[in-house]
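A quick aside before the break. I want you to see a complete sequence-to-structure record at least once, exactly as it would be stored in a machine-readable document. Don't worry about memorizing anything.
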Amino acid sequence: MFVVFQCRHCDAIVGDATDWLKAVKDIDSIALGNITEGSVYVEKEPVRVTSQFRIDRGAEYLPLHCSKCDAVLGLYYLSTGRFDDDLRNSYLLHISELKSYQIPVLRMPSVDPGSPQKA
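That is the input. The structure line, written in tokens, reads:
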């Protein structure tokens, strides 16, 4: 299956599972290494936010907004402190702000060129 992630508010496609890094269950989010080009933005004057309340306390991040509807979809970690080095420079998208759909991957049966074919 191929999974596509969309903004829950406007259906804009923000990423897909080919860029999947990990699920971050402690903060109900998924981490992607890349996102769909032009799908999210940070403010023109980016404000570094230092988390105070979650498991990522002390981490610095930039809020990510949907380019189509401006909803806050997640965050982009600049530093992770003791939280999780794997997440630095990754896109963390909040599950509550996403919809997803699956595209089945069809596989054709292999054909032996030496076997007789049905007409």
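Two observations worth writing down. The mean pLDDT is 84. DSSP finds no helices and ten strands in the chain. We'll return to this after the break.
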